[in-house]
Amino acid sequence: MLFDLIAPYTTVCLAGMCKNAGKTTALNALIGGARVRGVSLALTSIGRDGEREDLITGTYKPPIYVTGGSLFATARGLLSKCDVTGEILALTGIHTPLGEVAILRALSDGFVELAGPSMTEQIVALTDQLKGFGAQKVLIDGALFRRSLCAPEAAEGVILSTGGSYGPDMEKTERSGAEKL
Q: What pTM, to 2 d.p., does this model score?
């Protein structure tokens, strides 16, 4: 169902209002939706995602699972943390603290960790490259407080995860999330 909501868009950014808001859970649901529908998918992140333990809070995080054929862009320093067999299609020239961002095609199913660019111009260029390698849909996993990278130049659609931790009143949480964008 979630995938059907983003069907009209080729680039979608996932943003979170707080830590543990459900961003990666939504991302995994979208990956599953693409798989069922046979949609060629590409993933990247404007932060770091897919690690099994939050580096700040030490709490469990859901891992990111991709299937063979999926494209993903991540910093070279995280390649050893990915258990997919991947083919490097390109080095982007975009550098992060975790190394240069590489574009890969997963040759097997498995888990990936993502870290990508942190500037809007870079995410736009990376998205164009991913589409050039055949991605029908690009999902950009956002980062806490970096909603600006979900700007119209970078993504046609945005999924905002607010999480129950934002407040006990879900209706108020939803209104607040809509007002902040």
A: 0.84
For residue 113, the one-letter residue type is E
Q: Among residues 39, 5, 11, 47, which one has the least CA distance to residue 156?
A: 11
For residues 166 and 179, the answer to whether their CB atoms sit within 8 Å is: no
Q: β-pairing, 71-75 with 110-112?
A: unpaired
Confidence of residue 87 (pLDDT cuts 50, 70, 90): very high
Q: Could you state, in order of their start, the residue ranges of all structural domains in the chain?
A: 21-180
Cα–Cα nearest to 24, from 45, 38, 9: 45
